[in-house]
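Suppose you are handed a protein chain with no further information: no name, no annotation, nothing but its sequence. What can you learn? This example shows the usual starting point.
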Amino acid sequence: MKYSKIYNRIADTYFTGGKEHLAKKGEKNNKVYFFVSIILLSLAISTSIYFLFNALSKEKSAVYAQKKSLSVLGNILPLKIDYKFLDTSENIKNISLDLPKIDLADYDALELRLRGDPAKGFANLVKIEFASSRKEREGIYLKGIESAWKTFRIPLRQVPSLKSFSDLETITFVVEGWNIDKPQGCIFIDKIMFVKDTKKP
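A reasonable first move is to predict its three-dimensional structure. Written in structure tokens, the prediction is:
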């Protein structure tokens, strides 16, 4: 009986100690996992905040850029005026752009690019008509079109009969048969945008 009691005592001590050891080891591992999880979560949150801040900054820059210039054509392909006044009663060819309802009063100029088709020929002159929702209309002539793209700038103050560009409705590009030296040809129009002077805040 004594030996059996001794063996039981040793067995209890051994197995109980092992369990306590395993429990302590498990607690230690849980603490390590907890701290690692906290660190990883902090890194994830910091990274998300960083990318969100960058995205908002870029968006703010994009909005600022749009305020400095407003594109009319967007991703549309270049406009084309293909005209032929030979042996016809037609003597005007035009193409119009309907503008969205945007207040353009703070913009200073209209910029666009023009070029002629060297294969078909082209006039070196085109008329641009501005029309407001109040039925005000004014035309400006652009001269000097070439076979390569050329940028033109029209200061809006040169359009005196329009009191304000706050309600501009359409822009029309016109080729007049009586006002050109080539009765047949093709003119391309691209990069139409309203811009502000860079010196302005």
